[in-house]
């Protein structure tokens, strides 16, 4: 019999990955271990190698031991992948070890990307303080489908020998319902407003998306206010009137692009965390993966200057969604705010001429407040 989630320690698998991934994850892990001790959380933490350096050393992006750990874990704490630095890597290895196959293997479908603004960073953001004040939104990015996974895909030659790249954007209604139900329920527990974002005007999958979300709203969530918005308009509204948003439900590709675009509000991509969830397993737990929204940042990797706050805030999401300890999650978020209020700044969120802290010193600034 599967031990119940209440009796089995939460297994957390740490995969630092590439570039700044290991640097920011090291700070996130310090915070996780601190909170584990402080709240006496039943948690088993395991680190495993993953990424391009692992491939160079072992011939595998994700060696067998890492694969096995993925199969038994409840929650992955992930750093970043560099999917561009893979010259010479066989296509099967890329596919086998990719972040997309990891997400699929874990059954992740709901990618939460909260965007909050910090008053201390008003000057850093290109937006006006009056636009930023009170921004508190969360993307629910559908993570299992769309153009990321649709078949056929590939680069082929047409009859004239010209190459063409092919990707296919597909959503079935079960995928839409699953993500939408999650997003409606989330909105119900927040300010009760869901904005569903699609391109129903040009894409059949978008038209279906809109129909399915509308029907689900009618059948199960009439107490939530539903708005539909085209994805390009959403891009505009995110910088004109971001306060109008509470929960934004959207597909895999639009969610990827729009969440990076929203990072400007938070002052830096180095500020945005994310958490991705599966449907509940038989023991009641959802499998999950927590990672910063940003990537491996090759331009600053190895210098010890990356901002670890997105990774640390991803730990807050782990504490909330996988460990179920809301108080601990809030404490981490409050410690980040307090560190910023006290002037702690990594280079990406420092004003010109302002002294900047390195990655570890930013971790220290948060830990000092926990
Ligand atoms: N989930 C992921 O692992 C993930 C996400 C996005 C991109 N990527 C991969 O990362 C690689 C690089 O992509 P990119 O450069 O377009 O995007 P990126 O997110 O790595 O970096 C974009 C810009 O933001 C800066 N930045 C990002 N995170 C930062 C942090 N924590 N502190 C300070 N500055 C930070 C970088 O220095 C860079 O200037 C690519 O191979 C891409 O596929 C991975
Ligand atoms: C690295 C890449 C596959 C990934 C995505 O597009 O999902 C990244 O951009 C993200 O935002 O997590
Ligand atoms: Mg992205």
Automatic annotation (TrEMBL):
Its EC number is 1.1.1.85. Pathway: Amino-acid biosynthesis; L-leucine biosynthesis; L-leucine from 3-methyl-2-oxobutanoate: step 3/4. Its cofactor is Mn(2+); Mg(2+). The keyword Magnesium applies. Binds 1 Mg(2+) or Mn(2+) ion per subunit. Residues 11-366 form the Isopropylmalate dehydrogenase-like domain. InterPro entries: IsoCit/isopropylmalate_DH_CS (IPR019818), IsoPropMal-DH-like_dom (IPR024084), Isopropylmalate_DH (IPR004429). Homodimer. Catalyzes the oxidation of 3-carboxy-2-hydroxy-4-methylpentanoate (3-isopropylmalate) to 3-carboxy-4-methyl-2-oxopentanoate. The product decarboxylates to 4-methyl-2 oxopentanoate. This is 3-isopropylmalate dehydrogenase. It comes from Falsiroseomonas frigidaquae.
């Amino acid at each position: 019999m599967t031990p119940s989630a209440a009796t089995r320690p939460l297994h957390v698998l740490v995969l630092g990955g590439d570039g700044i991934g290991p640097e920011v994850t090291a700070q996130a892990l310090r915070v996780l271990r601190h909170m584990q001790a402080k709240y006496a959380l039943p948690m088993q933490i395991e680190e495993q190698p993953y990424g391009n350096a692992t491939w160079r050393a072992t011939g595998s992006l994700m060696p067998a031991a890492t694969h096995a750990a993925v199969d038994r874990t409840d929650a992955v704490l992930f750093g970043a992948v560099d999917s561009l630095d893979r010259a010479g890597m066989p296509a099967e290895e890329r596919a086998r070890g990719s972040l997309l196959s990891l997400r699929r293997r874990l059954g992740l479908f709901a990618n939460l990307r909260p965007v909050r603004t910090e008053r201390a960073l008003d000057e850093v953001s290109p937006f006006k303080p009056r636009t930023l004040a009170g921004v508190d939104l969360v993307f629910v990015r559908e993570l299992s489908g769309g153009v990321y996974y649709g078949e056929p895909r590939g680069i082929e030659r047409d009859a004239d020998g010209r190459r063409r790249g092919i990707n296919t954007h597909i959503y079935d209604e079960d995928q839409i319902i699953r993500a939408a139900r999650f997003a409606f329920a989330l909105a119900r527990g927040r300010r009760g407003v869901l904005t569903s974002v699609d391109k129903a005007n040009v894409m059949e999958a978008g038209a279906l998306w809109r129909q399915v979300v509308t029907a689900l709203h009618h059948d199960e969530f009439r107490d939530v206010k539903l708005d539909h918005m085209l994805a390009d308009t959403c891009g505009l509204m995110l910088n004109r009137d971001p306060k109008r948003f509470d929960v934004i439900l959207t597909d895999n590709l639009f969610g990827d692009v729009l969440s990076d675009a929203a990072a400007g509000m938070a002052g830096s991509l180095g500020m945005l965390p994310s958490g991705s969830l599966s449907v509940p397993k038989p023991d009641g737990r959802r499998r999950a993966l927590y990672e910063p929204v940003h990537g491996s940042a090759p331009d600053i990797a190895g210098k010890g200057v990356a901002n670890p706050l997105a990774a640390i805030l991803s730990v807050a999401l782990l504490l909330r969604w996988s460990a179920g300890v809301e108080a601990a999650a809030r404490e981490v978020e409050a410690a980040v705010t307090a560190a910023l209020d006290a002037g702690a700044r990594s280079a990406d969120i420092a004003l010109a001429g302002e002294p900047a802290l390195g990655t570890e010193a930013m971790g220290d600034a948060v830990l000092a407040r926990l």
